[in-house]
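Annex B. Sample input.
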Amino acid sequence: MGWIFLLAVVIVFVLFLRKKLTFKFGLSPNSVELKPLKGLKKLSDHLEQSLSISYINNVEERIKKEIKFKENEYNWRLQDLKRYFIMTALLKESPMFSKKVDDLWHQMLMFTREYDDFSKKYLGSILHHSPNVKETSDPDLRGFFDWVYAELFFIRKENIHLYNGFFRHPVNPKIIEEFKSLSENELIDLYFKSDTQYTNTVLSLISSMKNTANSIKDYEKAVIQDKMRKSKTQKNFNAMLVPFLSVSYFHYDKFSSYMNISNDSSSSSTNCGSVSSCSSCSSCSSCSSCGGGGD
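Annex B, continued. Sample output.
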C-alpha cells in the first residue's frame, strides 16, 4: 500500500510539473474582475485613475526588455498587481505571495517619481515595498490572504498559475472562529484599515467573510460523517492523504462557488476568485511586504 501511495504522489507531481511548464495564458482580461461587494468598483476605478497611462506604458516597456513573457502573460500579471493594490487599501497587512507579480511591482518602483505620485493619488501616502527575507511564507498569512482574495475577485486558471495555487494553506481555525463570533469593529481592529475612505467596502467584505465562516461548520460535520462511514483500512489510507486533503476540504470544495474558475481559456477575457498589525510602519504610510515567494 505504501509504494502505491508513493507512486501516486510521483505521478501527480510529474503531471503538475508538466502542466506548469506548458501553461498557456488565455485572452487578456478586460477588467480586474471584481465580486459584487459594495464600493469595490469605486475603489478599483480610483486605482485606475491613479495609474497614468504613460507610467504603465513605461513600466511595460522596461520589464519586457528584461523578461520574456508568454502571450498575454504580462496583462495577467498586471491584473493581479492591481488586485494586490486593491487589497492594500483594505487590509492592515497584505503580503506579496507571487514572485511573478512582485517582479512587476519592482519595475514600477524604478520610476520613483511616478510611483510616488501614484501612491499619493491612490492612498494618500507612500505604498512601501518591503523586501522578502523569508524563504517560505507564514501559512496563516497565506491562508488568510487567499480567503480575502477569493471574496474580492473571480479566480481564473491564470491567477492560480501566478500564485502557484490557492488554498494550499488552510485558514487558521482561530481566524475562522473570530469571523464567526467577533463584531465588525473588533475584526477591523484586527485585520482591516480603519482610516480608509472605503469603510463601506471593508464592512461588506467582513459580512461576506462572516457568511462564509458560518457556513463552514455544517460542511465540516458532513466531512466527519463521511469519514466515519469508511472502513478502518480506508481510514488508514486516508490518514496518509491528510496533508493533501486538509488543504482542499475547506477551500477548494467549499470555495468552488466563490472561485468561478474558467476551464475555457477563451472565457478568461469576459467580465463574468498570524496576521499582524503594521505597528512598524509610520502613521503616514501603508504597510506591505513580500510574504515569502509564491508558495
